[in-house]
Design goal:
The complex is a heterodimer.
Chain A lengths: L1 H24 L9 H10 L1 H35 L1 H16 L2 H12 L4 H26 L3 H9 L4 H39 L7 H10 L3 H30 L8
Chain B lengths: L2 E11 L5 E11 L3 E5 L6 H9 L6 E6 L5 E4 L11 H11 L4 H14 L15 H13 L5 E5 L7 H18 L2 E5 L3 H7 L2 E5 L5 E6 L7 H5 L1 H20 L1
Parallel strand pairs in B: 3-7, 3-8, 5-6, 6-7
Antiparallel strand pairs in B: 1-2, 1-4, 8-9
Helix pairs in contact in B: 2-3, 2-4, 3-4, 6-8
The chains are: A mainly alpha, B alpha/beta.
């Protein structure tokens, strides 16, 4: 109970202090609006902000889904064949270490300005996919040698070893990777919206830029708050999935 | 008596040049219980892995009857943490494509043999070390093995649990009539369990083949002169080994 009450009290106290100090010092509304103004802006622009939220959420969701599929598949491929891993690993690393903001304009040009949404999904995907790949790889490689021998003795085929042993054993690592990627997909989506620029994008990040340009700082904060809430939901949704899938057998839930 | 495994001039050297088996030749009779003892690194475990087909020897010949089914019990229980006791025991049968009905019968029988019939739905983490080892044994037994390989299976357990499991194993062996190859580093355990004890030398050769007299295995046997003499013989054979090093 304290786990929920303490952050709640700290948050409430901070908001009250914020509301008071802004009024007390007479800070202009276009520099730092009080929380009440932000709440008002949120209610006033609720429909359009929700529309923007759905756009950002869908970019995040698609990028995350493909990061999960791509990361796990590539990890499986790498652990099946040393040859494939040696051939592809340097390029995967290159894609990861090159700043995505620098590649984004290229992706926009290649995919075409008429398909900005796809371009944004690709950009967010590049940001999100690496943690899933590395965590899945590590998970599969850490499978106990004795368990491998056990399945080998039973005459298991490679796909049986994968399904019965490697994927379940790697599940905790995959979920850790997924949790990181979930957050990164959101960051990637925001970056993608920033890069995609005016006129084409209608997500939350774009609303932040737009509101900033019009000095509607309260709306800016409202959009920012929605982004934070989205990130928090993504994080706790992963904790929930972990709890559902691992609590019965994994050491971390002892 | 027919032979279960005939091994001829088995040699094993690893890539780094370390030789763990030299000219190992032996015939394991069907239905026999053989213990293998020897100093660390003498190739006991490698021998077991090679005979089970987990590893290829550098040279040598192994003959078994066609369609020999094997069971293997590792030093660790090697259970899948996310599968229940039942599912763990059933896994090798599922992989081999046995039908559900037959799998069920075999799993239930094997769990009854090791005294875990009422823990079918438990997860490994809910079991004690001894119980986990019993599940591991049940998993091997469920495959109706002709040959059962056991690699220091009770080494990590406390003394009392180990003595109890030794007796249970003998009981199972008499009922199942399978051939057992049992690697251990405990001389008294080898003496108590086996009909024959093979002593390996530190350079990977078969040094002695010691027959243990007496058919009954109980507390009286543990206290008997025959038991102590046999244990002494094995210990001496092992000690002499150390001098060679």
């Amino acid at each position: 109970m304290m786990k929920f009450l303490l952050p709640f009290f700290v948050g409430s106290a901070l908001l009250l202090f914020w509301e008071w100090i802004v009024g007390f010092l007479g800070v202009p509304i276009f520099v730092l609006p009080p929380p009440s103004q932000i709440a008002f802006a949120l209610i006033e622009n609720f429909t359009s902000l929700m529309g923007a939220l759905i756009v950002t959420l869908s970019i995040t969701g698609f990028a995350y889904f493909w990061a999960l599929v791509g990361g796990v598949s590539l990890a499986i491929l790498f652990t099946r064949s040393r040859f494939i891993e040696m051939s592809l690993a340097p390029y995967v690393v290159t894609l990861q270490v090159t700043p995505v903001v620098a590649i984004a304009p290229l992706i926009l040009i290649w995919v075409g300005f008429e398909n900005t949404n796809q371009a944004m999904i690709i950009i967010a995907w590049i940001v999100a996919f690496f943690p899933i790949l590395t965590n899945t790889l590590q998970g599969i490689r850490s499978v106990d040698g004795g368990l491998h021998q056990l399945l080998q003795l039973s005459g298991a085929k490679w796909w049986q070893i994968l399904i019965y042993l490697e994927l379940p054993a790697a599940l905790p690592s995959i979920l850790t990777g997924a949790k990181i990627s979930g957050g990164l997909a959101l960051i990637g989506a925001v970056v993608a919206e920033f890069v995609a620029g005016s006129g084409t994008s209608t997500g939350l990040a774009w609303r932040i830029i737009e509101a900033g340009n019009r000095l509607e700082i309260a709306t800016m904060f409202a959009a920012l708050a929605l982004l934070s809430i989205l990130g928090i939901i993504i994080y706790y949704a992963h904790n929930l999935v972990e709890w559902i899938l691992l609590r019965k057998w994994h050491e971390s839930f002892n | 008596m027919s032979l279960a495994i005939k091994v001829n001039d088995l040699n094993m050297a690893y890539a780094d040049g370390i030789e763990v088996l030299r000219g190992f030749t032996y015939s394991f009779e069907a239905g026999s219980f053989t213990a293998i003892v020897g100093p660390s690194g003498c190739g006991k475990s490698s021998l077991l892995r090679i005979l089970a087909g987990l590893q290829s020897p550098s040279s040598g010949k192994i003959e078994t009857k066609p369609d020999t089914s094997i069971g293997y019990v590792f030093q660790e229980p090697t259970l899948l943490a996310w599968r229940t006791v039942y599912e763990n025991v059933a896994l090798p049968l599922k992989i081999k494509g046995l039908n559900q009905q037959l799998t069920h019968t075999r799993v239930v029988d094997a769990l009854a043999l090791v005294g875990l019939a009422d823990r079918q739905h438990a997860l490994p983490r809910e079991l004690s070390g001894g119980m986990k080892m019993r599940v591991s044994l049940a998993r091997a037994l469920a495959q109706n093995p002709d040959v059962l390989f056991m690699d220091e299976p009770f080494g990590a357990l406390d003394e009392l649990t180990r003595l109890k499991l030794d007796d249970e194993l003998l009981d199972i062996w008499r009922r199942q009539k399978c051939t057992i190859l049992f690697v251990t580093h405990t001389v008294s355990e080898a003496t108590y369990l086996a009909e024959r004890v093979l002593v390996m030398s530190s350079n990977g050769q078969l040094k002695d083949d010691i027959k243990i007299e007496g058919n009954t295995r109980n507390e009286a046997f543990r206290a008997s002169t025959a038991f102590h003499e046999a244990r002494l013989t094995i210990t001496k054979s092992l000690e002499h080994n150390e001098e060679v090093i």
